[in-house]
Design brief:
The complex is a heterodimer of chains A (603) and B (222). Chain A is of the alpha+beta class and 603 residues long. Helices cover 41% and strands 26% of the residues of chain A.
Chain lengths: 603, 222
Amino acid sequence: MEHIVGIDLGTTNSLIAYVDEDGPRIIADAKTGHKIVPSIVSFLSDGKIVVGREAGELARTQPLSTIRSVKRFMGLGMEHVSPDDQQRYRFANDQGMVRFAIHDRQYTSPEVSAVILRALREQAEAALKEEVHKVVITVPAYFNDSQRQATKDAGKLAGLDVIRLLNEPTAASLAYGLNTKQEGLIAVYDFGGGTFDVSILRLHTGIFEVLSTSGDMRLGGDDIDQCLAARFLLSDLSEELRRDPQVLSIAHSVAERAKSALSEQDETVLDFSVAEKGIRVSRSLTRQELEEAVDEIVTRTLGPCRQALKDAGLEPHEIEEVVVVGGSTRMPLVRQRVGEFFGRSPLTDLDPDEVVALGAAVQADTLSGRRRDMLLLDVVPLSLGIETMGGVLSHLIERNTTIPASVKEMFTTAVDDQTAVDVHVLQGERELVQDCRSLARFTIPIEPKPAGVPRVEVTFMIDANGILSVSALDLRTGLERSVEVKPSYGLTDDEVEQLLEESIDFAEEDIEQRLLIEARTEADTVLNATHKALHKNASFLRQGEEEQIAQAVQKLREARDGKDYDLIRDLTEELSEATTPFAQRIMDSSIQEVLGEKRLSEL
Amino acid sequence: MSTTAVVQCWRCQDEHAAQAFCPACHVIQVLPADVDYFSVFGLARNPVLDEVNLTQMYYDLSRQLHPDLHQTGTAEEQEASLKNTALLNRAYWILRDPVQRGQYWLELNGEQLGKANNRVPAQLAVLVFEVQEKLAELREVRTTQAAATLADLKSELEQIRADLDEQMQSFQQKLTTNFAKWEHPDRPQDLLSELKRVLSDMAYLRTLGRDVEKEYSVSWNT
């Protein structure tokens, strides 16, 4: 049976896993043995694209064409991009969907993520020695509809069939539950590179029921790094240097390394130098200094914890186990704060970097029909509603509703002969539309009738991926009305198709181009050698041979300037064959000459 | 899960009472959209129910219907699984909560709470007034950023929260008692209006509680 693999498409790191006879396991790179693919993509000026560690090294010299933490930009509009990020990258526009401007092209976040997914796919295909198509990809539980849709688009652009988007803390709970067989109330505290999630679950006879989830889409290890960089590395620099993308990129890496080091030891050295810019900072940093600097960030994670508990109707002490996930939970300060909040030490048996990917693989196993003893009941993280009169949001589906969820809403017209009703869908907890995140707009076509007569029933369905779909039924005619949803910050289906075609065309064109170049090079080598040999060794030619070779040369020369690489290769071969006896004779004579020389020297 | 409506299996054309799986060919069926939430669980239309038992039934039905377990099925099976699970989730969401269950049950019996829950319940008037006043004060203080006053208000608001919780508990008990009386042969004549009043008051209290939580979280960033 075809494997369905699980992918943790992380802000900082990405992993791919599958389930074999022994359970879930991470698929390592067959050549290097590395399990983790850093989520970094670098676009070179010659069109080459580099992913992972190699791209990480390029970040130093090519900060503007190397995208880190692309997940922070998934499904967002330019107005959501932080000032820090505005400094670090170049963008193609100042409103609408985020588009990175790199060299002379634009790249959307799903396109950049697709590069990472392709690398993971290749890693898995090389190790499993089979093709990989179907995948489960994890997303932060607190991801909204646009961010989920963007992740699905990324999968599509990577040529993958994304059969499920799975919430990261829920994935972690699956891996944890499988491991411990524990039942009862658990909290999953997932503090990753760019996002923070907390989910409260009840585990009962193989059912993993999410009671509530909360989080902060813009809070992660990246913020800790930025905070450290700003405080200890950039504070003495000029305004200009503090805005320099290269300086920022390097400072970020130095801060990240120091943070990791201070999870293991009490003191480390910050070595920050950018020779080109005349920067040379070297100073020590203690764990205590780090903890004082980032205390406020860590404290911010406790708000969502409180909210999730409240939504689940629970008190901290009722939680029987706390599972910590995500690279940021390696920090002793984070573990200490979590421990204090829930009144118990967090469980750290599972590798916080791997647990999400492992859980995704377990869910993939269930979806492939091989496993029936575990079932996830997940929830929608944010309330969904529509805009009503006066810019007020009317909630249709409350947050923490178990998915799939659907709700029907009746629409009619306000004026005579109105031919359409416009609907604006938003997600968020606030009352006013302006405070919530716009998801999409759509238009319901309506037969012209007196006001209030048409009755159109619109069904909003949130599927098991947490993604919204809309359908409309005209109750008077009984006809389904097609509804085209325009995402506010995403790619339309047409755009995804177009990008997909472009990337396939591009890939094909790439290969064609390469084959042509190779064929021409080969032809040139043979033509050159023939030309030289004819010039130098014409005496070795037999009767009629010269004409035959000249013809072959002529044919190849003509083909070489065309684009048919197959023809070029065939004619190159033909010329090679035509000159073989001639070349043989030259060779033989050279050998005799060499031997002759020896003989001479021997004399 | 069954209702009295007769439907036809989409695959084998067997005619049977609407239920989640065809009794003849065992394939998953789309439940009629107008099936009532009690019958989704095979329960009689009765607002008194064992909530622990309801959860267990919810888990059991999820294990049969959930899309995760029909992923390898045909498009029709996946569609049926998605729609049924959405219906099951909705039914569970409504029935597990006594207030929503009570309101839904009233609607099934052709009774509406109507606009009644917009008026201030008489016996809550003092509490409501006090809460509204505190919230207004809080909003005021928040704009002036007076830290000391804000700290005082925090403990007062926490007291209000506790009061509201306590009030809700007492309503909850009243509701359960009244529900139980419903099945009784010699139930009081005004039981229905009493039930409506309690449900309406609870709905009001709940909205008030949400306002408090909202202001609380805005003020203290939780």
